[in-house]
Design brief:
- By secondary structure, the protein is of the alpha/beta class.
- It has one domain.
- The chain is 22% helix and 21% strand.
- The protein is built from five helices and seven strands.
- A seven-stranded mixed β-sheet has the order 1-7-2-6-3-5-4.
- It is globular.
Length: 204
């Protein structure tokens, strides 16, 4: 990130490796050094996949570590949709029902202001009321979620074996992409300590 060398050689998980994601890294690199956020790797090392701690708990601990070093940090965490859910209650038959990053992080640092934002791309109209309602709009549509959306179906949870919940219980907002977005099926959490310095935390 400091030199610009080797950006194209960064190892990115195959599920999110695409030109748009790599361009995001380049855009960050091209920012003024005084305004550029600091990338922080959060992912659980593959060597620890069979360990006692889950990927989400590991990432939550990594994020908490940023605030232990700098309580004024502001962080954008880019991860998959399920990782940012405000609550993740699996159906009873699901083995090893780990929680989401947000749940682990809230448990460790309850004073943080956290906003979970899901991204809807390519979901079926039959499975997602947001896709049906906003499909005629061009570009991206951002929606704050609250009780107005009680009963709405959220496409990104239809194929996941979690207990039924209202969309506003799962996320604070969604971004609907009516065409290919910058990052396919990637969501984020925005976290704030005391407003002062920006950081950028990403997980693959």
């Amino acid at each position: 990130m400091k030199t610009g060398a080797g950006l194209s050689d960064i190892d990115i998980h195959s599920q999110i490796d695409c030109p748009e994601y790599r361009n995001l890294v380049k855009v960050l690199r091209d920012l003024d050094p005084n305004e550029r956020p600091t990338p922080v790797a959060l992912a659980l090392p593959e060597s620890k996949y069979s360990g006692e701690i889950s990927r989400d708990e590991w990432m939550a601990r990594s994020i908490a570590g940023v605030f232990e070093s700098n309580s004024n940090a502001k962080i954008l965490v880019v991860v998959g949709n399920n990782h940012v859910l405000k609550k993740l209650e699996w159906q009873d038959h699901v083995p090893n029902p780990n929680r989401s990053i947000r749940q682990y992080l809230t448990e460790r640092r309850s004073n943080l202001r956290i906003f979970s934002i899901g991204q809807i791309i390519g979901e079926s109209i039959d499975d997602c009321d947001f896709r049906e309602r906003f499909s005629d709009y061009e570009g991206a549509v951002a929606v704050d979620l609250d009780e107005r959306f009680t009963g709405w179906k959220l496409g990104i949870t239809q194929s996941v074996e979690i207990k039924k919940a209202e969309v506003w219980e799962l996320l604070d907002g969604v971004i609907l992409e009516t065409c290919l977005g910058i990052i396919d099926k990637i969501s984020c959490m925005i976290l704030r300590g005391k407003p002062w310095r920006d950081s950028f935390a990403k997980s693959y």
